[in-house]
Amino acid sequence: MAKVVSVNISTEKGTVKKPVPAVSLKKECGIENDAHAGDWHRQISLLADESIDKMRAKLTDVKLVPGVFAENITTEGLELYTLPVGTRLKIGPTVVEITQIGKECHMGCEIRTLTGDCVMPREGVFAVVIEEGDVHPGDVIELLPGTPA
Questions:
Q1: Alpha carbon distance 92, 138 (integer Å)
Q2: CA nearest 114: which of 15, 10, 8?
Q3: Domain-by-domain residue ranges, the chain?
Q4: Which of 41, 25, 49, 40 is nearest to 123 (CA)?
């Protein structure tokens, strides 16, 4: 079963995000109080803990915790980057739709400086909010039927 490991926010773009007890997802906005919130196609970022594990194996001297790759939602049990654009995920009471897989890396960002590499450009996914609500660590993630997964 796929689930939320951590929910994370930051007040500035290009910085690591800090875990918080819950996040509030809003339509046409993303995550309330997050630097990336806004009416655009990358309202929320998601990264699987399994993707972070690949970096942990390479960088044993750096502590890689949820949010270090600037992801809003750290997940477990779902290979996110293999899901096609258009896939809808039910995360707790919310629904999000994947709009982008991977991204161009900002070479001078805090994450790359800290770790020497960044998995987000390869395996992170981005989504928009379809149905609002609060998301907490431990919430179940489901692939919704009828999406192109």
A1: 9
A2: 15
A3: 2-143
A4: 49
* CB distance 48 to 79 below 8 Å: yes
DSSP letter for 45, please.
E
pLDDT band at 119 (very low <50, low <70, confident <90, very high): confident
CATH of segment(s) 2-143: 2.40.33.20
Percent with pLDDT over 70 in the chain: 89
Burial grade of 75 (CB within 10 A; 0-12, 13-18, 19 or more):
buried
Q: Residue 114: pLDDT band by 50, 70, 90 thresholds?
A: low
Distance CA 126, CA 116 (A): 22
**Tokens coding 95:** 């629904």
Q: How would you classify the pairing of strands 44-48 and 73-76?
A: parallel
pLDDT tens-digit series, residues 73-106: 999 999 999 999 999 999 999 999 999 998 776 5
